[in-house]
Amino acid sequence: MTQQMMLERAAGYARRFDTLFEEYFDQVGTRLDAPSFSRFAPDCLRLLRELSLRGGKRMRVVVLHEAARLVTDEPAEGLDAAALSIELLQTHGLVHDDLIDDSPVRRGGPSTYYAYRERFPDHPQTALGLTVLAGDLALALSQRVLLEAPLPVALRQAMVEVQTRTAADTFLGQIIDLERDFAAAPDEEVLHCVADYKSSRYSVLAPLQLGLLAAGEEPARFERELRAYARLVGICGQMRDDYLDLFGDAATLGKPIGTDLRDGRHSYAVHALLAAADDTERRVLRAALGDPDSPPQTIAEVREIGERRGVPARMQAAMNRRADEASAVAAGWRSHWREEAVTFFERLPRWSVERAR
């Protein structure tokens, strides 16, 4: 399977899912037992719909479908419900992330938090409370869509268990992500742990597990290798995000660079900069770290320090190394799964470290 074939198939999954997601939101309001007088409940659903349908590449959905293809090329029962559950959990995470980070924009539109702030400018606690509850509702819907799916009881229960564990791991990831930024200089293993809990487990591991379950496979038999693969891909993806935030192209990204630096995040890029810089350069970096008003000139100076010290090349080499390790894990799946789908998972890590945004 060529890379072009991979991209075309992934785009096909995304298009089909976007139609499914739109149909879901067309119907979900009629299935919720909200009081007829409530104006806030339908408004909440509308905001969740708008955020959810402004989706990106839908890579979680792609991983889900390709995981099922590891076992069979026949249609697999439960994939639609699993895909909806995965993306509703993602919506939950985005709503709460934007609240935690005080982000005004998400996916080219207003964040849910800022949409509520605009609606209730004189009631900030109401805006905050409704944002929390909107995220909570998305989480509940991600469970409910599985509980209501017309699936065999055993399959439905297994999928709910995967998503419940995944949600708990993701919340722990959010907690340790906030905790990380209170450390003076967290070591790299802490960064790996945050990436694993906050991203890998719901973006890669859960879709793998759900896809295998839908295809009739028992993912617990392959727990160690699935977790190893997901962790490596998640680390690659987070390293790439952190790299692009400082060394990427603002026009391609569609947002200013240096956000992590201004927000005081101890990202992979910040970690690499602190390790490579001399004392004078570290003072420049630490002055910018956590300064929300840090001007573009200062961000450019920090970026120049990194380039002078070879940080981009070292980060790219580290990403490539882990991508190769993940590909090697996937290559081992040929002994028990279908060649074409294994090839997809071999190539996925490389895509994650070569993307421009």
Q: What does this molecule look like?
A:
The structure is a single chain. With 357 residues, the chain is an all-alpha fold. Helices cover 75% and strands 1% of the residues. The chain has 16 helices and two strands. The two termini are 24 Å apart. The mean pLDDT is 93.
Layout of strands and helices, then pairs:
Blueprint (H helix, E strand, L loop, with lengths): L2 H29 L8 H14 L5 H11 L9 H23 L3 E2 L2 E2 L1 H8 L4 H24 L5 H28 L7 H27 L8 H25 L2 H4 L5 H4 L5 H9 L2 H10 L7 H13 L2 H21 L7 H16 L3
Antiparallel strand pairs: 1-2
Helix pairs in contact: 1-2, 1-3, 2-6, 3-4, 3-8, 3-16, 4-6, 4-7, 4-8, 5-6, 6-7, 7-8, 8-9, 9-15, 9-16, 12-15, 13-14, 15-16
Task: Give the termini separation.
Answer: 24 Å
Beta content comes to under 5%
**How many strands in all?**
2
Side-by-side strand order of the widest sheet: 1-2
Order of helices and strands: HHHHEEHHHHHHHHHHHH
Largest sheet: 2 strands, antiparallel
Number of helices: 16
Give the helix proportion (percent range). Answer: over 70%
Oligomer: single chain
Mean pLDDT: 93
What's the alpha carbon Rg, rounded to whole Å?
21 Å
The assigned structural class equals: mainly alpha
| Poorly predicted runs | none
Protein name: Polyprenyl synthetase family protein
Organism: Streptomyces xanthii
Cofactor: Mg(2+)
Keywords: Isoprene biosynthesis, Magnesium, Metal-binding, Transferase
Task: Provide a quick synopsis of the model.
75% of the residues lie in helices and 1% in strands.
